[in-house]
Design goal:
This protein has 458 residues and is an alpha+beta fold. It has three domains: 20-121, Tetratricopeptide repeat domain (Serine Threonine Protein Phosphatase 5, Tetratricopeptide repeat, Alpha Horseshoe), CATH 1.25.40; 175-305, Rossmann fold; 308-455, Hnrnp arginine n-methyltransferase1. Helices cover 40% and strands 23% of the residues. It has 15 helices and 17 strands. The strands form four sheets. Strands 6, 9, 10, 11, 13, 14 and 15 form a seven-stranded antiparallel sheet that branches. A five-stranded parallel sheet has the order 3-2-1-4-5, with helices on both faces. Strand 1 (200-204), helix 12 (210-217) and strand 2 (222-226) form a beta-alpha-beta unit. Helix 5 packs parallel to helix 7. The longest helix is centred in the first third of the chain and has 16 residues, at 20-35. The radius of gyration is 30 Å and the shape is flat. The protein starts with 19 loop residues before the first helix and ends with a strand.
């Protein structure tokens, strides 16, 4: 069979071998292929085929040899001939499907997979191939269902386990701490309960569907929620159905900028709910996304939740932080030149990494989503040192204002609740020795998508 690394497993004896001599020749050919003796293997397989031009095992072995040498087209042609001579052999259809997937012949591959499953519906190898097909088509949910089905049949199936691991790596891991971020969820829920009842709602970036369900529960007149990634949108629809809200929430598998009034939304919405904020506030294209929604998809008087996002920072130091950002010496060697490779910004969880706070909190940018926003900006900010120490950069976090009196921020504290955003550390080019009362001049810049903060010389 084929495995997830794109190899065909050796065929030691074909079920259709005409006689023991042909079987012996094919076993030897398979062993030669495994050892890399391709020319000898091909000669042995062709010897069998010369004796019997319809010998399925010889065609199959020639297909394996061609695949081993990278000639996937020839491998596919040999497997097509083999399936023609033995049309009820599900393994041949499955192997043909794998080659067709590699060639990008998607429709033919699916037909071969379905034919193999028609012959033997419970074959785990074919089911895994079906999952691989769906995964390459962007159908993560269908792929996972196939891999899980294969594991129910054979809990030890290696390819099913490895393919499932690869598939799940496509799911951004921050979804889970974000969904379990109690303060974040409470802030969204309070704002939605206060604003949404009786109003139409557009939710951008549905994820699990959580915010859309909050809006429906709060008494929205109607809720439409969009999600760019099709398999996430499908899973959100499943979550919404599990909560009995399918008749009140429309899930649209589109980017918000592709939505149209009349087809996707029955009318402009009265409330926009969004969670398209990255750790750096802007890095999920929040400015163009919300401005497009305000221009095309919302009523002029629409309420935006959250309506303001702020990026806040403080100067930071401490030995644990330094060990992540700079290197000096190790076992008697200087390693300082390697510091050139450290990024000027580093994501980390400042809640759980000990560090020294060396200044007051400072706001570097404020984004009001109820007004037009600059697509780029820069500013110089003076920060006063409140505690002496060795400073390595600034820690930046996110602050959101939802409605009056309701806000959320993930300022670093020792917290036990989950934080889906985490923090960004903007590293200075060199450590700074600071004393209380010193001033550090920062240059804060953004280009509408990313932010950068650095220190300026005196």
């Amino acid at each position: 069979m084929f495995n997830s690394l794109g190899r065909m497993q050796p065929i030691f004896q074909s079920e259709t071998a005409a006689d023991s001599e042909s079987a012996t020749l094919l076993r030897e050919a398979a062993q030669c292929t495994t050892r890399g003796e391709i020319g000898k293997a091909e000669a042995l397989a062709r010897q069998v085929l010369a004796r019997d031009p319809r010998h399925t095992g010889a065609m199959e072995e020639l297909g394996r040899i061609a695949h081993r040498t990278g000639n996937k087209r020839a491998a596919t042609d040999w497997l097509r001939k083999a399936t023609a001579t033995e049309p009820n052999n599900f393994q041949l259809h499955n192997r043909l499907a794998f080659c067709l997937i590699q060639l990008g012949e998607r429709e033919q591959a699916l037909r071969a997979i379905m034919r193999a499953l028609e012959i033997k519906p419970d074959d785990p190898d074919t089911i895994v191939n079906k999952g691989t097909f769906h995964l390459q088509e962007g159908g993560l949910n269908e792929a996972l269902a196939a891999f899980r089905q294969a594991l129910e049949i054979n809990p030890l199936h290696q390819n099913a386990r490895f393919n499932m691991m690869v598939a799940l790596e496509d799911v951004p891991p921050w979804h889970f701490p974000m969904m379990n971020d109690v303060p974040r969820n409470a802030a969204y829920d309070e704002a939605i309960r206060r604003i949404v009842p009786g109003h139409s709602v557009l939710d951008i970036g549905t994820g699990s569907g959580l915010l859309a369900m909050m809006a429906a529960r709060a008494g929205a007149r109607w809720v439409a929620t969009c999600e760019l990634v099709p398999w996430i949108a499908a899973k959100a629809a499943e979550v919404i159905a599990a909560n009995g809200l399918s008749d009140r929430i429309k899930v649209i598998a589109k980017r918000s900028t592709d939505l149209q009034i009349g087809s996707d939304l029955q009318e402009p919405a009265e409330v926009l709910v969004s969670e398209v904020f990255g750790t750096m506030v802007l890095n999920e294209h929040v400015i163009p996304t919300i401005e497009d929604a305000r221009a095309r998809l919302l009523k002029p008087s629409a309420v935006v939740i959250p309506n303001v996002a702020r990026a806040r920072v403080y100067l930071a130091g401490g030995a644990a932080l330094e060990s992540r950002l700079f290197v000096d010496r190790a076992v008697g060697f200087t390693l300082a030149p390697f510091n050139d490779f450290v990024s000027p910004r580093v994501w980390f969880d400042a809640h759980h990494l000990p560090h020294d706070v060396l200044s007051e909190d400072v706001e570097v940018f404020r984004f009001d989503f109820t007004r037009p926003l600059a697509r780029a900006d820069k500013r110089v900010i003076d920060v006063t040192v409140t505690r002496p120490g060795r400073c390595f950069g600034v820690v930046q976090w996110l602050h959101l204002d939802f409605v009056e009196g309701v806000s959320y921020e993930n300022r670093p504290i020792s917290r036990t609740t989950n934080d889906g955003w985490g923090h960004m550390l903007y590293r200075f080019s060199e450590p700074m020795e600071l004393k209380a009362g010193d001033r550090v001049r920062l240059l804060a810049q953004h280009n509408g998508h990313y932010m950068l903060i650095s220190n300026l010389p005196d």
